[in-house]
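#lab-general

N.A. 3:47 PM
ok so I finally got the sequence cleaned up, no stray characters, all 117 residues accounted for. can someone with queue access submit it? mine expired

B.Y. 3:52 PM
send it over

N.A. 3:53 PM
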Amino acid sequence: MGHYLCAILNSSPAVLLLYVTAQWVQTPDYQATDIQRLLIPQFDPTDRLHQELARLSFKAHALAAAEGSSELARVQSQVDRVASKLWGITVSELDAIQDDLTEIGRSKRGASEEVEA
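B.Y. 4:20 PM
back already:
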């Protein structure tokens, strides 16, 4: 369940929502209640999207610990695709979200890729 939550919170849709709802002085100030706006479905171990998000997060953590892996950007892109499916976000909407994050300097992803989920 922890990796499922990590995947959701690190997905581009969640990052953008938290970024635009943050209170700003000189740096973003996030409130605990901001996360409630994400409408995170309760983890269901029988849901294949939930399982895939947890698996991808586990893989991303391992790749990040290994440092320098070019595979990490691909896994992060896969997290975005699966999280978007969870929320009903279309591919074109996800592309716009990722473009917005790039524009504000918050993008951590490479090119979009399809997910085999």
